[in-house]
Amino acid sequence: MAAKTDIETVKQTFSDYLRKMKYRSTPERSRVLDRIAEYDRHFSADELYMHMNNLGDRVSRATVYSTLDLLTQCNILMKHRFQGESAHFELSSRMPNHDHLICTECGRIVEFREDQIKKIRNQVCDTLGFRPRTHSLQIFAVCHDPSTCEYNQAE
Amino acid sequence: MAAKTDIETVKQTFSDYLRKMKYRSTPERSRVLDRIAEYDRHFSADELYMHMNNLGDRVSRATVYSTLDLLTQCNILMKHRFQGESAHFELSSRMPNHDHLICTECGRIVEFREDQIKKIRNQVCDTLGFRPRTHSLQIFAVCHDPSTCEYNQAE
DNA sequence: GTTCTTGCAAACCCTTTGCACGTCT
DNA sequence: AGACGTGCAAAGGGTTTGCAAGAAC
Known about the structure:
The structure is a homodimer. Chain A is of the alpha+beta class. The first copy, chain A, has 6 helices and 6 strands, in the order ααβααββββαβα. Chain A has helices at residues 7-20, 27-37, 45-54, 61-73, 116-128, 146-149; strands at 43-44, 77-80, 88-91, 98-103, 109-113, 130-143. Chain A has a 3-stranded antiparallel sheet. In chain A, strands 5-4-6 form a 3-stranded mixed sheet. In chain A, a hairpin with a 5-residue loop joins strand 4 (98-103) and strand 5. The longest helix of chain A is centred in the first third of the chain and has 14 residues, at 7-20. The radius of gyration of chain A is 17 Å and the shape is globular. The two termini of chain A are 29 Å apart. The A-B interface holds A 81, 83-84, 87, 101, 103-104, 110, 112, 114, 116-117, 120-121, 123-125, 127-145, 148 and B 81-84, 87, 101, 103-104, 110, 112, 114, 116-117, 120-121, 123-125, 127-145, 148.
């Protein structure tokens, strides 16, 4: 079985965070996190909002945005800003320590893991006097074989 | 004397690029690049537009944006998207191969150089079958000494 | 009961676009 | 002359906000 995010652990983390920060537990916040757990990929705020609407969840755009913000603050979600598009989110626990390569020709995004990066990140923080939280490395590149790169015209 | 961008080289690169792509040389495009050369830091499109307006340059927002786009395409400029803000640009030649550490408390951005990153980038591209172009690494961290972190409230 | 959160729609900001005019080749 | 670039203002898309109603504590 594939390494699957343990949703219960994540929900616990979230409710601990809310309590600690004196924010309230609401069904909307809980529901947003439930739906996020169903994704195994990046998603945008609006994509999630539509998804929830399609499923009949009655959650407003404002609530989706604000909950995404909370989830990012407590590191449950990682927020990425690729190119010019809207922000994309994903569960931090989904694929720890991965980064992204973006094809500058077709926009395709490839995920990869490279453990040295975290080490470098910690070194840099140490040198500069910071406590590391997260990082986001985006490599912009073009594929050797242009035909491979065409595939995502539909995306 | 500090390592200063050779503006003549950069202008040559730009005019070569324009010619190659059959775009036209215009005084506006040239002027935009001249003004950029006066910055030794990140700037946003609007900041540049205001700067030019203050100096009496008659260049529209649309032209500023489109020229920034051209300059990014030919790698004269590097375009960054920090946090939720607008895009920030800087001359690639200004400080080659540097990356950014962003304080999640105060938003301060610290530049640093770490040569291993480029090597990793090239390795990753090699493995995945891509030709590297550029990269952008952002480290999110909090300073050990909170008092240091307060300084940019004014920014 | 008080304070925080939600939902809605309008506001907001950055960026892009359409069109008429100007200009580079 | 013709095609491309510019300026302006309006449109666009993603995100945030103000306010009244509702829910958590």
